[in-house]
Design goal:
Number of strands: 13
CATH class of the largest domain: Alpha Beta
Radius of gyration: 22 Å
Helix content: 40-55%
Order of helices and strands: EHEHEEEHEHEHEHEHEHHEHEEH
Strand content: 15-25%
Distance between the termini: 60 Å
Bound molecules: 6-O-phosphono-beta-D-fructofuranose
Number of domains: 2
Number of helices: 11
Strand order of the largest sheet: 3-2-1-6-7-12-13
Structural class: alpha/beta
Protein backbone atom coordinates (compact mmCIF):
# COMPACT_ATOMS: atom_id res chain seq x y z
CA UNK A 1 0.00 0.00 0.00
CA UNK A 2 1.39 3.42 -0.97
CA UNK A 3 1.87 5.65 2.02
CA UNK A 4 0.81 9.32 2.12
CA UNK A 5 3.08 11.57 4.16
CA UNK A 6 2.57 15.15 5.31
CA UNK A 7 5.48 17.41 6.28
CA UNK A 8 5.71 20.81 7.98
CA UNK A 9 8.31 23.11 9.55
CA UNK A 10 7.49 24.84 12.82
CA UNK A 11 9.09 27.37 15.19
CA UNK A 12 11.94 29.72 14.31
CA UNK A 13 13.52 28.92 10.96
CA UNK A 14 16.97 27.42 10.86
CA UNK A 15 19.62 26.66 8.23
CA UNK A 16 19.29 23.06 7.09
CA UNK A 17 15.48 22.92 7.06
CA UNK A 18 15.34 22.67 3.27
CA UNK A 19 18.07 20.04 3.28
CA UNK A 20 15.97 18.04 5.75
CA UNK A 21 12.75 18.46 3.72
CA UNK A 22 14.69 17.28 0.68
CA UNK A 23 16.18 14.33 2.59
CA UNK A 24 12.78 13.15 3.85
CA UNK A 25 11.05 13.85 0.54
CA UNK A 26 13.57 12.32 -1.86
CA UNK A 27 13.92 9.16 0.24
CA UNK A 28 10.14 8.81 0.71
CA UNK A 29 9.33 9.37 -2.95
CA UNK A 30 12.39 8.04 -4.78
CA UNK A 31 13.39 5.18 -2.52
CA UNK A 32 10.10 4.07 -0.99
CA UNK A 33 7.54 5.14 -3.61
CA UNK A 34 5.45 7.13 -1.13
CA UNK A 35 3.50 10.34 -1.75
CA UNK A 36 4.42 13.48 0.17
CA UNK A 37 2.60 16.75 0.64
CA UNK A 38 3.83 19.91 2.37
CA UNK A 39 1.82 22.08 4.77
CA UNK A 40 2.64 25.77 4.80
CA UNK A 41 3.59 27.85 7.84
CA UNK A 42 3.75 25.12 10.45
CA UNK A 43 0.72 23.90 12.38
CA UNK A 44 -1.29 26.90 11.18
CA UNK A 45 -1.08 25.68 7.59
CA UNK A 46 -2.18 22.21 8.65
CA UNK A 47 -5.10 23.73 10.56
CA UNK A 48 -6.08 25.84 7.53
CA UNK A 49 -5.30 22.98 5.12
CA UNK A 50 -2.88 25.09 3.09
CA UNK A 51 -0.74 22.65 1.18
CA UNK A 52 2.23 22.65 -1.18
CA UNK A 53 3.09 20.02 -3.77
CA UNK A 54 6.44 18.41 -3.19
CA UNK A 55 6.47 15.77 -5.91
CA UNK A 56 6.98 17.94 -8.99
CA UNK A 57 10.59 19.04 -8.78
CA UNK A 58 10.10 21.26 -5.71
CA UNK A 59 12.71 19.21 -3.86
CA UNK A 60 15.43 19.94 -6.42
CA UNK A 61 17.88 22.79 -5.90
CA UNK A 62 16.94 23.40 -2.26
CA UNK A 63 19.79 21.62 -0.46
CA UNK A 64 21.81 24.81 -0.20
CA UNK A 65 18.95 27.26 0.41
CA UNK A 66 18.44 28.97 3.78
CA UNK A 67 15.04 29.26 5.48
CA UNK A 68 12.26 26.82 4.64
CA UNK A 69 10.38 26.50 1.36
CA UNK A 70 7.29 25.55 3.40
CA UNK A 71 7.30 28.69 5.55
CA UNK A 72 7.00 28.46 9.32
CA UNK A 73 5.17 29.90 12.32
CA UNK A 74 5.24 29.59 16.07
CA UNK A 75 1.55 28.61 16.25
CA UNK A 76 0.66 25.78 18.61
CA UNK A 77 -2.21 23.38 17.80
CA UNK A 78 -3.80 23.76 21.26
CA UNK A 79 -3.47 27.56 21.57
CA UNK A 80 -3.93 29.14 18.17
CA UNK A 81 -5.04 32.74 17.60
CA UNK A 82 -8.14 32.51 15.39
CA UNK A 83 -10.52 35.40 14.74
CA UNK A 84 -9.35 37.42 17.75
CA UNK A 85 -9.52 34.44 20.12
CA UNK A 86 -6.99 31.83 21.18
CA UNK A 87 -8.51 28.40 20.50
CA UNK A 88 -7.65 24.74 20.79
CA UNK A 89 -7.50 23.65 17.13
CA UNK A 90 -6.13 20.16 17.75
CA UNK A 91 -9.30 18.45 16.52
CA UNK A 92 -9.38 20.55 13.34
CA UNK A 93 -5.75 19.59 12.70
CA UNK A 94 -6.53 15.91 13.29
CA UNK A 95 -9.49 16.24 10.91
CA UNK A 96 -7.31 17.69 8.14
CA UNK A 97 -4.74 14.95 8.70
CA UNK A 98 -7.43 12.32 8.08
CA UNK A 99 -9.09 14.22 5.20
CA UNK A 100 -5.71 14.21 3.42
CA UNK A 101 -5.53 10.43 4.02
CA UNK A 102 -2.15 10.81 5.70
CA UNK A 103 -0.35 7.79 7.08
CA UNK A 104 2.16 9.96 8.91
CA UNK A 105 3.04 13.58 9.62
CA UNK A 106 6.68 14.73 9.77
CA UNK A 107 7.28 17.82 11.95
CA UNK A 108 10.62 19.61 11.71
CA UNK A 109 11.21 21.81 14.71
CA UNK A 110 12.81 22.60 18.05
CA UNK A 111 11.70 22.05 21.63
CA UNK A 112 8.23 23.57 21.20
CA UNK A 113 7.57 21.43 18.15
CA UNK A 114 8.40 18.25 20.07
CA UNK A 115 5.72 19.17 22.62
CA UNK A 116 3.17 19.98 19.92
CA UNK A 117 3.95 16.75 18.09
CA UNK A 118 3.37 14.78 21.27
CA UNK A 119 -0.05 16.43 21.63
CA UNK A 120 -0.93 15.23 18.13
CA UNK A 121 0.40 11.77 18.89
CA UNK A 122 -1.92 11.70 21.90
CA UNK A 123 -4.78 12.49 19.47
CA UNK A 124 -3.91 9.30 17.60
CA UNK A 125 -1.87 10.78 14.72
CA UNK A 126 1.27 9.03 13.44
CA UNK A 127 3.81 11.75 14.09
CA UNK A 128 7.56 11.72 13.60
CA UNK A 129 9.89 14.67 14.25
CA UNK A 130 13.36 15.95 13.42
CA UNK A 131 15.36 18.20 15.80
CA UNK A 132 16.18 21.60 14.32
CA UNK A 133 17.32 24.76 16.06
CA UNK A 134 20.35 27.00 16.14
CA UNK A 135 20.11 26.83 19.95
CA UNK A 136 21.13 23.12 20.10
CA UNK A 137 18.87 22.77 23.16
CA UNK A 138 16.71 19.77 22.14
CA UNK A 139 17.06 16.88 24.59
CA UNK A 140 18.09 13.32 23.66
CA UNK A 141 20.00 14.20 20.48
CA UNK A 142 23.73 14.78 20.14
CA UNK A 143 23.11 17.90 18.06
CA UNK A 144 20.41 19.78 16.15
CA UNK A 145 20.71 21.02 12.59
CA UNK A 146 21.14 24.78 12.27
CA UNK A 147 23.56 24.93 15.17
CA UNK A 148 26.72 24.44 13.14
CA UNK A 149 25.81 27.18 10.67
CA UNK A 150 24.96 29.66 13.44
CA UNK A 151 28.18 28.71 15.21
CA UNK A 152 30.15 29.62 12.09
CA UNK A 153 28.34 32.94 11.66
CA UNK A 154 28.79 33.98 15.31
CA UNK A 155 32.44 32.93 15.24
CA UNK A 156 33.13 34.94 12.10
CA UNK A 157 31.42 37.95 13.69
CA UNK A 158 33.75 37.67 16.66
CA UNK A 159 36.79 37.38 14.42
CA UNK A 160 35.79 40.64 12.74
CA UNK A 161 34.97 42.42 16.00
CA UNK A 162 38.41 41.59 17.40
CA UNK A 163 40.28 43.89 15.04
CA UNK A 164 38.03 46.89 15.61
CA UNK A 165 37.98 46.35 19.41
CA UNK A 166 41.79 46.20 19.30
CA UNK A 167 42.18 49.35 17.19
CA UNK A 168 39.87 51.46 19.39
CA UNK A 169 40.87 49.97 22.77
CA UNK A 170 37.26 49.07 23.44
CA UNK A 171 35.14 46.41 25.04
CA UNK A 172 32.76 44.89 22.50
CA UNK A 173 29.84 43.02 24.00
CA UNK A 174 28.44 40.57 21.44
CA UNK A 175 24.95 39.21 22.10
CA UNK A 176 24.44 35.69 20.78
CA UNK A 177 21.15 33.79 20.44
CA UNK A 178 20.37 30.53 22.20
CA UNK A 179 17.18 31.16 24.17
CA UNK A 180 17.79 29.71 27.66
CA UNK A 181 20.82 27.61 26.66
CA UNK A 182 24.42 28.73 26.27
CA UNK A 183 25.62 26.32 23.57
CA UNK A 184 25.93 28.89 20.81
CA UNK A 185 27.59 31.60 22.92
CA UNK A 186 29.95 29.10 24.52
CA UNK A 187 30.89 27.37 21.25
CA UNK A 188 31.32 30.59 19.28
CA UNK A 189 33.02 32.28 22.23
CA UNK A 190 35.62 29.52 22.39
CA UNK A 191 36.07 29.33 18.61
CA UNK A 192 36.20 33.12 18.29
CA UNK A 193 38.60 33.58 21.21
CA UNK A 194 36.25 35.71 23.34
CA UNK A 195 37.89 36.98 26.52
CA UNK A 196 34.67 36.62 28.51
CA UNK A 197 31.78 34.21 27.85
CA UNK A 198 28.52 34.58 29.78
CA UNK A 199 25.90 31.83 29.52
CA UNK A 200 22.56 31.31 31.30
CA UNK A 201 23.81 28.16 33.03
CA UNK A 202 26.54 30.06 34.91
CA UNK A 203 25.12 33.21 36.55
CA UNK A 204 27.78 35.93 36.46
CA UNK A 205 29.15 38.55 38.83
CA UNK A 206 29.73 41.76 36.90
CA UNK A 207 32.72 42.59 39.14
CA UNK A 208 34.41 39.32 38.10
CA UNK A 209 33.96 40.26 34.43
CA UNK A 210 35.22 43.80 35.03
CA UNK A 211 38.28 42.54 36.88
CA UNK A 212 39.15 40.15 34.02
CA UNK A 213 38.97 43.08 31.60
CA UNK A 214 41.04 45.34 33.88
CA UNK A 215 43.63 42.57 34.23
CA UNK A 216 43.92 42.40 30.44
CA UNK A 217 44.47 46.16 30.34
CA UNK A 218 47.20 45.89 33.00
CA UNK A 219 48.83 43.25 30.77
CA UNK A 220 48.90 45.62 27.82
CA UNK A 221 45.66 44.49 26.16
CA UNK A 222 43.22 47.35 26.70
CA UNK A 223 40.42 45.74 24.65
CA UNK A 224 38.12 42.77 25.21
CA UNK A 225 35.45 40.73 23.48
CA UNK A 226 32.57 39.69 25.74
CA UNK A 227 30.35 36.96 24.23
CA UNK A 228 27.04 37.10 26.05
CA UNK A 229 24.26 34.59 25.49
CA UNK A 230 20.89 36.29 25.16
CA UNK A 231 19.66 34.33 28.19
CA UNK A 232 22.69 35.14 30.39
CA UNK A 233 21.81 36.33 33.87
CA UNK A 234 23.68 38.00 36.73
CA UNK A 235 23.92 36.19 40.05
CA UNK A 236 21.90 39.00 41.61
CA UNK A 237 19.02 38.59 39.14
CA UNK A 238 19.30 34.82 39.37
CA UNK A 239 18.85 34.89 43.14
CA UNK A 240 15.97 37.37 42.86
CA UNK A 241 14.25 35.11 40.31
CA UNK A 242 14.73 32.07 42.51
CA UNK A 243 13.20 33.92 45.47
CA UNK A 244 10.26 35.06 43.33
CA UNK A 245 9.76 31.52 42.08
CA UNK A 246 9.76 30.17 45.63
CA UNK A 247 7.20 32.75 46.76
CA UNK A 248 5.03 31.89 43.77
CA UNK A 249 5.17 28.19 44.64
CA UNK A 250 4.16 29.05 48.19
CA UNK A 251 1.03 30.74 46.86
CA UNK A 252 1.82 34.47 47.10
CA UNK A 253 -0.08 36.13 44.23
CA UNK A 254 1.69 39.49 44.32
CA UNK A 255 5.09 38.46 42.97
CA UNK A 256 5.81 38.82 39.25
CA UNK A 257 8.08 36.04 37.97
CA UNK A 258 9.94 36.87 34.74
CA UNK A 259 8.50 35.15 31.65
CA UNK A 260 10.10 31.88 30.53
CA UNK A 261 10.80 33.27 27.06
CA UNK A 262 12.07 36.84 27.24
CA UNK A 263 11.58 39.07 24.22
CA UNK A 264 14.35 40.31 21.97
CA UNK A 265 13.93 43.76 23.55
CA UNK A 266 14.35 42.35 27.06
CA UNK A 267 17.50 40.52 26.00
CA UNK A 268 18.91 43.62 24.31
CA UNK A 269 18.09 45.74 27.36
CA UNK A 270 20.12 43.37 29.54
CA UNK A 271 23.05 43.43 27.11
CA UNK A 272 23.07 47.24 26.89
CA UNK A 273 22.96 47.58 30.67
CA UNK A 274 25.85 45.11 30.99
CA UNK A 275 27.97 47.10 28.52
CA UNK A 276 27.23 50.37 30.37
CA UNK A 277 28.20 48.81 33.69
CA UNK A 278 31.45 47.42 32.27
CA UNK A 279 32.29 50.85 30.90
CA UNK A 280 31.83 52.35 34.39
CA UNK A 281 33.81 49.61 36.12
CA UNK A 282 36.77 49.47 33.71
CA UNK A 283 37.11 52.97 32.33
CA UNK A 284 37.18 51.53 28.80
CA UNK A 285 34.67 52.53 26.14
CA UNK A 286 32.13 49.79 25.37
CA UNK A 287 30.10 48.98 22.26
CA UNK A 288 27.33 46.42 21.72
CA UNK A 289 26.74 44.14 18.71
CA UNK A 290 23.52 42.15 18.67
CA UNK A 291 23.91 39.41 16.07
CA UNK A 292 20.19 38.56 16.17
CA UNK A 293 18.58 36.86 13.17
CA UNK A 294 21.76 37.06 11.09
CA UNK A 295 22.65 33.86 12.95
CA UNK A 296 19.67 32.02 11.42
CA UNK A 297 19.86 33.36 7.89
CA UNK A 298 21.51 32.22 4.71
CA UNK A 299 22.99 29.01 3.41
CA UNK A 300 23.51 26.04 5.72
CA UNK A 301 27.04 24.82 6.45
CA UNK A 302 28.26 21.53 4.98
CA UNK A 303 27.90 19.89 8.42
CA UNK A 304 24.26 21.00 8.69
CA UNK A 305 23.45 19.81 5.17
CA UNK A 306 24.96 16.45 6.00
CA UNK A 307 23.19 16.16 9.37
CA UNK A 308 19.81 17.24 7.96
CA UNK A 309 20.13 14.74 5.10
CA UNK A 310 21.11 11.92 7.47
CA UNK A 311 18.18 12.63 9.80
CA UNK A 312 15.75 13.16 6.92
CA UNK A 313 16.58 9.88 5.19
CA UNK A 314 16.52 7.98 8.51
CA UNK A 315 13.06 9.47 9.05
CA UNK A 316 11.91 7.96 5.73
CA UNK A 317 13.31 4.58 6.83
CA UNK A 318 11.30 4.73 10.07
CA UNK A 319 8.13 5.67 8.19
CA UNK A 320 8.60 2.71 5.86
CA UNK A 321 8.82 0.47 8.95
CA UNK A 322 5.69 2.07 10.47
CA UNK A 323 7.74 3.33 13.41
CA UNK A 324 5.97 6.50 14.62
CA UNK A 325 5.66 8.68 17.72
CA UNK A 326 9.39 9.35 17.81
CA UNK A 327 12.02 12.00 17.16
CA UNK A 328 14.88 11.02 14.87
CA UNK A 329 17.90 11.91 16.99
CA UNK A 330 21.56 12.18 16.00
CA UNK A 331 23.68 9.59 17.77
CA UNK A 332 27.36 9.54 16.81
CA UNK A 333 27.62 8.92 13.07
CA UNK A 334 24.19 7.32 13.07
CA UNK A 335 20.69 8.09 14.27
CA UNK A 336 18.25 6.65 16.77
CA UNK A 337 14.52 6.90 17.35
CA UNK A 338 13.61 8.51 20.69
CA UNK A 339 10.05 8.42 22.01
CA UNK A 340 8.42 11.86 21.93
CA UNK A 341 7.47 11.41 25.59
CA UNK A 342 11.21 11.34 26.40
CA UNK A 343 11.94 14.58 24.55
CA UNK A 344 8.91 16.84 24.96
CA UNK A 345 9.16 19.47 27.68
CA UNK A 346 12.89 18.96 28.25
CA UNK A 347 15.58 21.52 27.51
CA UNK A 348 19.21 20.50 26.98
CA UNK A 349 21.28 23.15 28.71
CA UNK A 350 25.06 23.27 29.16
CA UNK A 351 26.09 21.22 32.22
CA UNK A 352 28.34 23.48 34.36
CA UNK A 353 31.16 20.90 34.19
CA UNK A 354 30.81 20.26 30.45
CA UNK A 355 34.13 19.72 28.60
CA UNK A 356 33.58 22.95 26.60
CA UNK A 357 33.29 24.88 29.86
CA UNK A 358 36.48 23.29 31.16
CA UNK A 359 38.33 24.05 27.91
CA UNK A 360 37.26 27.69 28.06
CA UNK A 361 38.57 27.94 31.62
CA UNK A 362 41.87 26.27 30.68
CA UNK A 363 42.61 28.91 28.03
CA UNK A 364 41.94 31.64 30.57
CA UNK A 365 38.48 32.74 29.46
CA UNK A 366 36.46 34.47 32.15
CA UNK A 367 33.01 32.89 32.59
CA UNK A 368 31.77 35.52 35.00
CA UNK A 369 31.88 33.33 38.11
O1 LIG B 1 15.00 29.25 18.97
C1 LIG B 1 15.69 29.90 18.00
C2 LIG B 1 15.76 31.36 18.28
O2 LIG B 1 16.51 31.95 17.23
C3 LIG B 1 16.33 31.74 19.64
O3 LIG B 1 17.73 31.67 19.66
C4 LIG B 1 15.77 33.12 19.82
O4 LIG B 1 15.62 33.42 21.19
C5 LIG B 1 14.43 33.03 19.16
O5 LIG B 1 14.49 31.95 18.26
C6 LIG B 1 14.04 34.29 18.41
O6 LIG B 1 12.75 34.12 17.97
P1 LIG B 1 12.01 35.00 16.86
O7 LIG B 1 12.51 34.59 15.53
O8 LIG B 1 10.59 34.68 17.05
O9 LIG B 1 12.38 36.43 17.13
Amino acid sequence: MTKYIGILTSGGDSPGLNAAIRGVGKACIGHYGMHIIGFRDGFRGLMENRTMRLDGGELSGILTRGGTILGTSRDKPHRMPVGGKVLDMTDVIAGNYHDNHLDALVCLGGGGTQKNALRLKQKGLNVITLPKTIDNDVAMTDITFGFDTALGIATEAMDRLHSTAHSHHRIIVVEIMGHRAGWLALGAGIAGGADVILIPEIPYEVESVAEAIRERSRNGKPFSIVAVAEGAISMQDHLAMQAAQEKKTKGSKKVAVPPAHATEIQYADHTLRLAKKLEQLTGLEARVTILGHLQRGGIPSAADRLLATRLGTACADLISQGHYGVMVAAKGDGTRAVKLEDVAGKVKTVPPGHPWVESARRVGTNLGD
